[in-house]
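Try this one yourself first.
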């Protein structure tokens, strides 16, 4: 599987939180491509950034995603909670 995601993040006045929106595409196989658009919020604590997104998938599913990454390391976790 090949996945491409674009995050567009804006900052609040203090630079430790803000809004995020974007789009993702996942190529499952030669004939199956999933797409999703998302909006949400993000916040930073130390070097860790967490994003909380509502995502609408092309086949009608809605997800709530929690994405956490360490800006000093090479770790990223992506939790997906399906709504329907």
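Now uncover the answer:
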């Amino acid at each position: 599987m090949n996945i491409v995601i674009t995050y567009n993040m804006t900052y609040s006045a203090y630079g430790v939180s803000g809004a995020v929106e974007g789009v993702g595409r996942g190529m499952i196989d030669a004939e199956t491509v999933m797409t999703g658009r998302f909006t949400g919020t993000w916040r930073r604590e130390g070097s860790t950034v967490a994003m909380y997104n509502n995502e609408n998938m092309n086949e009608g599913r809605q997800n709530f995603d929690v994405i956490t990454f360490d800006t000093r390391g090479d770790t990223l976790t992506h939790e997906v909670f399906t709504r329907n």
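Discussion: Residues 2-82 form one domain. Residues 14 and 43 are 11 Å apart (CA to CA).
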